[in-house]
Amino acid sequence: MQSNREYFCLEPANFRLDGGAMFGIIPKPLWNKVHPSDEQNRIDLALRLLLIREDNRIILIDTGIGDFNDEKFNSRFDVRGNLKPLTAALKVLGLTPDDVTDLILSHLHFDHAGGIGEMVDGEMKPIFKNALCHVHTQHYEYAHNSSERDAGSFHCQNFDPVIDWYRDQGKMIWHKGNEGVIIDLADNPIKFKCSHGHTPFLMHPYDDKFIYLADLIPTSNHVHIPWVMGYDINPGVTTKDKREFLDFIIEKDLKIIYEHDPKFWGGQVEMTPRGPKTKAGFPQEEPLAYKIEL
């Protein structure tokens, strides 16, 4: 790995989702021990992004939920964050949105792609105007032709104007297939592998140190193979995806970035006779933004 590559976690906001939905068929007496719910059965979740700084590249993976949603939405999901949350988080690192050179979206659910834009005079405008925007073509197509079961997760009215802007500016980079290279940095490219159980062609960025699993393994408690979200479009496929990815992670000795774990920014896993399990967890650090060692 190039010695000048640095990694940072951004923590622009927290929110809550139903605990039963987050753990699927796992009984509440089991998951509530490790991830307690509130009086509405919701569990606390992070919106954790990864920023990579290397030479003249500032690479941001995912964008969180945004700050433009109405009070009903924010109350339902208990969204807790400041106005312009990404600007505030980047400021901690001495950066601004204009410094971001590459924006990678793992997938287009509202809590991952919501922060790509801001509402200006009733219109959605891009926040990262100098960035190239990386999106998986087949996932983008699915987002506009999703099932009735998961259509509510895709707020196309919010991200489409921004993606259209990137396209018009010649700044959209479309990716295809189950794996490939996102950014071809000379000694250590940012690559991707796709999973399909949560949503088709969910793109997982990785290099030789980390992998960003987004909603395939959203928290450290989801390392257990059967602990699969009820939100997944195809939970049976998710179990196969998890086995494949965890074998890959152990083989490559990668650290996992947990996008939604409120306590741990990441962890390592190991294989045991009973299957994969967490070997080490890395606690969340400073609010908003902090450097991590991989």
Describe the structure.
The structure is a single chain. This protein has 294 residues and is of the alpha+beta class. The chain has a single domain (6-292), classed as Metallo-beta-lactamase, Chain A, CATH 3.60.15.10. 23% of the residues lie in helices and 32% in strands. It contains eight helices and 19 strands. It has helices spanning 19-23, 28-34, 71-76, 85-92, 110-113, 137-143, 156-168, 235-252, and strands at residues 6-11, 13-18, 42-46, 49-54, 57-61, 80-81, 102-104, 117-120, 123-126, 132-136, 172-175, 179-183, 190-195, 202-206, 210-212, 255-257, 264-272, 275-283, 288-292. The strands form five sheets. It has a seven-stranded mixed β-sheet with strand order 11-10-7-5-4-1-19. It has a four-stranded mixed β-sheet with strand order 15-16-17-18. It has a three-stranded antiparallel β-sheet with strand order 3-2-6. The relative contact order is 0.16.
